[in-house]
Design a protein that fits this description.
The chain is α+β, with helices and mostly antiparallel strands. The chain is 31% helix and 24% strand. It has a 5-stranded antiparallel β-sheet. It binds ligand K1U and zinc ion (ZN).
Amino acid sequence: MIRPILIIPDPRLKKVAKPVVAVDEAMRALAADMFETMYEAPGIGLAGPQIGEMVRLVVMDIAKKDAPRRPLTLINPEIMWSSPEKSVYEEGCLSIPEFYEEVERAAMVTVRFLDAQGAECELTADGILATCLQHEIDHLNGVLFIDHISKLKRDRVMRKFRKEAKRKAEEGEAEAARPAIA
Ligand code: K1U
Ligand code: ZN
């Protein structure tokens, strides 16, 4: 099932997600919904909090558009090592539509996590995979990629999305107050 993706300034996007306690069918069903939502968006990653599920679950697929899918499920992911070398990548976020900005992060990371079967895994990544892993793990800690850019740019984007949320709320109120036509 495709789930609605939360958009800033939804407060759930700033909360710390809870560890997954059981890797069971319910968790795999949630991961399946997250993959469906991510592929439909489209995106290359999605974290539980982005659909209002406050658990430490991430799905990713960095395969190119026409290449076979390479889904990756990460449960309770933890960064074990970050390279001192940095790399800069222009990031986007499904919770901040149509805003892109360069972010500097560790060029390489080693991440430990459980897979969808509950097996312990370790992955060392560079390139876009390393960037995406750090972006998604940030989501689990209530951190957004705009928290890594200048305050001036962040304030500007927050103002725009707050205004848009207010407009949508007012539109919804006006719709609810309108008398139903028989
Ligand atoms: O977590 C998210 O909001 C998903 C985000 C992941 C991400 C993108 C870029 C750098 C780091 C992390 C996205 O997927 S935004 C959409 C996007 O980048 C994309 C969409 C379609 C094809 C290729 C990329
Ligand atoms: Zn994001």
